[in-house]
Amino acid sequence: MLGRMMILLSLVLLVMISATGCSIPPEIPSEQVEVAVEEDLPGIDDFVRVERPAEMVLRVAPSYPRIAEQAGIQGKVWIKVLVNKRGEVVDAVVFKSSGAKGLDMAALSVAWQNKFRPAVQNGEPVAVWVAYDVDFVLDKEKQ
Fold it and tell me: Which CATH fold would you assign to the domain 44-142?
């Protein structure tokens, strides 16, 4: 759906440029101008059948929010990320809250830094949503 929106926006931009009489600056050869088209990305609830699921290869741990730590708040946050064909996170949401906004935001803030081996469908990498949990647990000494 996002891919179709990018194509539509690109077409609208081209129409607007031609309607205003603007052109590509002369220092950029027209054969080098490309319209960037995003890959077709699944919706958050779309099921994508794969031969091999996406695998997290770099997991960045969030910092424990200081206020939550001082208050003795612990919890588990479920994060859902959209992993593109290159294994990059292109969207992230809190899928299931811990009940503590600070923990949720800490987990979400580093979700973009995680790296994945992309999922494979018909021998080709595909974009998929991946859910994972982040546990915030205090050391017994700090409780």
Answer: TolA/TonB C-terminal domain (3.30.2420)
